[in-house]
Request: fold
Amino acid sequence: MFKGKNGINLLLAVLLCAVSVSALCIGRYTMNPLDVFRSAVHYGENSALDTVIWSVRLPRIIMAAAVGSGLSVAGLSLQAMFGNPLVSAHVLGVSYSAGFGAALGILLFSNFAIVETSSLLFGLVGMALTYRLSKRKGGRSTLTLVLSGIIVGAAFEALTSLIKFVADPESKLPTITYWLMGSMSGASYKTLLLGLPFIVTGTLIIFALRWRLNILSLNEDEARSMGMNIRVMRFLVIVASSLITASAVSMCGSIGWVGLLVPHMARMLMGSNNRTVIPISISLGSVFVIVIDTFARSMSAAEIPISILTAVIGAPFFIALLRKTGGSWT
Reply:
């Protein structure tokens, strides 16, 4: 029943629905699927139950699904563009610039909408700086793009450290530190309204270009011989992945490893053809982050930052992958 591409897609769709319903039920206020069904049918009869399900947990699940699918697709597209399976969205420096924007917003303001907007804007600024710095005579190369991303990321990381240094250690500093570690606790429909369109837009761009990513993963001469405009394709992939990353960081902080782990899980299931791997990666990324977030808010009385859990899983996986591949596709 679940053989082949369509079977795996169906399995992941069923798994996503099951995980989402389970996440609605699991937490400090435990319930069962029948409670969710009754709340949907008789909305308004139990205000406490309705608030937990539809105002607290549902926005959080939607955010986790969007962030997971977006970061997975962004990581996959960059791995295809750079021809390296160990690349993630952090290589462009967007995560660090968006993190700086959030830290600056927390330092100067208390309104979460302003913090999210600041993070998103600085994420896009970081993308623009990386792309601008990578320009050289004769165009842009993969190496200059990576080096530019490292430079921009390091600069914004230093600026974030400066903000931590001057922040009030009693109020602002703990908030900045905890937020940068990644959490879905700020999820709301207002937050989703600002950040979700950028993730959806970036994901749709990459999804539409998924077959071209197979060509982009070849060397430049081969790609050009097949009629592809390398410069335009790189620009589209960079813009799309940066939109996704900046928006994800603006909504829930920096969540590492998702863009590295999930694409490899998808390739283990479907091979290396991006036409089939990208749709699988969308579903798998959503499932992965929903599960991680559910554990993060349910394992203890104090919510565990998501990046801690993804790192616990991701670090051993990365070590094994590095030993196996040596940083290349083969």
The mean pLDDT is 88. The longest helix spans residues 47-82. The chain has 14 helices and no strands.
